[in-house]
Write a structure and sequence with these properties.
The protein is an all-alpha fold. The mean pLDDT is 86. Helix content is 74%, strand content 0%. Helix 3 crosses helix 4. The protein has four helices and no strands. The longest helix is centred in the middle third of the chain and has 37 residues.
Length: 99
């Protein structure tokens, strides 16, 4: 018990403990802020991956459209539901079943 009391009376131990508490809880970059930053980084990385995949798909579609005129008509019909003057277009949407 005496060693513990002597430890708490030591000015170097008190200075290090105060510094540690300050850095962990009161500093601008405390533990909570670091956790929030890591969550934000993970979210931004997921968004980056999503947009990278979307960009690759768009580039593939653009390359296909530039290479073949028939694919342009197919693309317009499938993506934008465009039609010729004398046709009707029916869009069928599958209903999701609720469990």
């Amino acid at each position: 018990m005496k060693r513990l009391i002597d430890l708490f009376r030591n000015k170097y131990f008190l200075a290090i403990a105060a510094f540690g508490v300050w850095m962990l809880f009161f500093d601008k970059n405390d533990i909570i802020a670091q956790y929030e930053y890591s969550v934000q980084v993970k979210k931004l990385q997921q968004e980056k991956d999503f947009y990278t995949k979307e960009t690759a798909l768009v580039k593939k579609d653009l390359k296909e459209l530039d290479s073949n005129l028939n694919s342009a008509e197919k693309f317009a019909r499938e993506k934008y539901f465009m039609k010729k003057a004398n046709e009707d277009v029916f869009v069928i949407v599958k209903e999701e079943t609720k469990k």
